[in-house]
Design a protein that fits this description.
Elements: E1 7-11, H1 15-27, E2 31-35, H2 38-44, E3 52-56, H3 64-73, E4 79-84, H4 89-97, E5 102-105, H5 109-134, H6 138-148, H7 153-159, H8 166-180, H9 185-194
Parallel strand pairs: 1-2, 1-3, 3-4, 4-5
Amino acid sequence: MKDAPLTLYVVDDDEALRRSLLLLLFSQGLAVQAFASGEAFLEAVDLRQPGCVILDLRMGAMSGLTVFEQIRSTHSPLVTLFLSGHGDIPTALEAVRRGAYDWVQKPDTQQLLDKLPAAIVEARARGQAQRMWEDLTAREREVARLVGLGQPNKEIARVLVPPCGPRSVETHRANIFNKLQCANDNELGRWLAAHSWLE
């Protein structure tokens, strides 16, 4: 199945930079939308859809960091690349520590072009992971998290609400492994850790 085209979002209140990034990304054959503020971006974009956000750290009313926290709070699959001025590098590093994909120092457009392919690959992987996770039932998601924590079937059966028998947990576990393409508990634990942004 062919991947659906991903959209890149440029969020920057500097009109000249925004226009130049739009032209640059269009010239690479990428689907791009631009926004002059974090508020406009959050209002217009469905955060549940995978894509890449090129987000200026320092903007007017709503900072890039505030926008990023909103993205994170919705368990969005969006991959965030921050644009940072020289004085904001510590803040950009902190944003990466908190889950942003990476950052680029303005106005280094070559560095941005160098980092974008890997960010797009990550966005596609997140989109696939999101679809796999959504294919689980609510009970399977609940069981998956407990299996990922290393809980045995009897304990999982006991703590589930409403409780069920260990054999039901075993059935859920088999379904989870099949749907998430995991061979065992350890693989599931690693999968959950790698996709910790999922709800």
